[in-house]
Amino acid sequence: MGKLIALVLVLLGVGAGLGAGLYLRPVPEVDVADPPLEPAQPDVTLGSFEFDSQFVVPLVTDDQVTQLVVIKLALEIDEGSREAVHSSAARLRDSFLQVLFDHANSGGFQGAFTTQDNLTRLRRALREAAQHRLGAGVVQDVLITDILRTSA
After folding, report:
1. With 70 as the cut, is the pLDDT of residue 40 above it?
2. pTM to 2 decimals?
3. Which letter, b or e, does each residue of 95-127 get, where b requires 16 or more Cβ atoms within 10 Å of its Cβ?
4. Is the confidence at residue 5, as pLDDT, over 60?
5. For 28-52, what is the mean pLDDT?
6. What is the DSSP string of the chain?
7. Do residues 56 and 101 make contact, with C-beta atoms less than 8 angstroms apart?
8. Pairing assessment for the beta strands 139-151 and 46-50 based on DSSP bridges
9. Are 118 and 111 spatial neighbours (Cβ–Cβ below 8 Å)?
């Protein structure tokens, strides 16, 4: 019985020593002089282009306009392309209205229309329309600055 107690004490001592060694091991030092490498960013100065007026989207139920969605949009653009964006504003509005009408007709503005997934899908469709109209290097993103659903 004495040998069994000694064996158990030895195993407990080894286990406690191993646990203490793992717990108290030194943390590897991080060399602060070398910051992590970041991907090279092109020399693009980003700005924003905000449309002068809001977009109004009717929501139709049983051939009746039951609600309106009023949405204000802005574009995150390459600052050097501001003139091209400004001169294409009417065509952009046309493309955006088509995307917004498609989104409304697919039920995107029904129920909890401001969920992250819903707005992400809408932003992606608007960004693709803008990039199709102006080019991928001009428009970086579409920003939804205001959104409101109201009864007609």
Report:
1. no
2. 0.69
3. bbeebbeebbeeebbeeebeeeebeeebeebbb
4. yes
5. 68
6. -HHHHHHHHHHHHHHHHHHHHHHTPPPPPP-TTSPPP-PPPPS--EEEEE-SS-EEEEEEETTEEEEEEEEEEEEEEEGGGHHHHHHTHHHHHHHHHHHHHHHHHTTTTSSSTT-HHHHHHHHHHHHHHHHHHH-TTTEEEEEEEEEEEEE-
7. no
8. unpaired
9. no
Distance CA(100)–CA(94), nearest Å, equals: 10
> In the block, which residue shows the tokens 């109201």?
150
Closest CA to 113 of 73, 152, 150, 138: 150
CA dist., res. 134 & res. 95, Å (int): 11
Both structure tokens of 129: 């329309």
| Domains (range + CATH), the chain | 46-151 (3.30.479)
Question: Which tokens go with 128?
Answer: 């693709």
